[in-house]
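Standup notes, protein team

Yesterday: finished cleaning the Saccharopolyspora karakumensis set.
Today: fructose-bisphosphate aldolase structure.
Blockers: none.

Input for fructose-bisphosphate aldolase:
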Amino acid sequence: MTTTFPSSVPALAETAEQMTCEGRGILAADESIKTMSARLKAEGIPANEITRRDYRELLLTANRLSDSVSGIILADETFGQHLNDGRTFPEAAHDLGILPGIKVDTGTTPLPGLGGALITEGLDGLGARLASYAERGAAFAKWRAVFDVQTITAYSARANGHALARYASLCQQHGIVPIVEPEVLCNGVHDLATSAHATRLALAGLFEELDQASVDLNGIVLKPNFVTPGLGAPPAAASTVAAATFEVLGDTVPRAVPGIAFLSGGHPTSDACTFLADLNATTKRPWQVTFSFGRALVSDALRTWGGDAANVAAAQEALVANCRQAAKAIS
Ligand code: 13P
């Protein structure tokens, strides 16, 4: 068995750059056990430890995935599982030229008295968990804060920004690049201006707290949403989405941040890729832009697979086609 963890830990900025440049992006395959099980069941596939493992092995071992994918975000369950050939997922990822990452937050709970706004948890014992993940090959981590346009306030943005900042500084202490993800959900019928306002609040609260915590901005990757109308509202042109997204990010994200990797948020693959391509064409950008899509890359593969080993190759082709489409948007 080949285990090829780097012999010396690369600098954080170097890893962050590797994650976000060279026309590649990040594959988000870190759904919790609950979410992954629901997605399997929705496709008529039994949900258990083995099917979740088989599905993640299918994704990671797709032919030439590393041409378009620089990193893969794994869930804790997958991080400790083994491929059929006996390697752990992080070992196999390193062997394939893909950086393994780990989702480390433990989910959300309501902030009391705030009308449904959520706070993301998982800081207790995080230092020890990060030390263990680093030892087992994690190059980066992810923590996701979740905001709804209806309930976001400056306070909920700062509270989540504070948790993200504490997570980020702990990651950096352990030589792990933190993906900081303040996601403003695009479910709903709100307009573009509402999304822009909420995203601005979320990012302003985040960068205020990252600054207070002395997080090294050269060694993080930001994972925001595109600024779009709600999925239930009339859509905006991709050029309008790109311009609104650039305006908000330009006002809130310091130039020191090396790379921004967008989530897809439930937008269809082609829409998410067009938003990214238009944003990538914005010449005044100080940061690299790329993708860290989940559903926009994997939904077709999951449907094609359907839990049947005979469909693995076709499912892998569907995944790689979507990853190539996303990579093309940034090259
Ligand atoms: P989607 O691209 O499916 O929104 O997921 C990305 C992600 O990792 C959300 O945390």
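Follow-up from PR in the comments: The longest strand covers residues 140-147.
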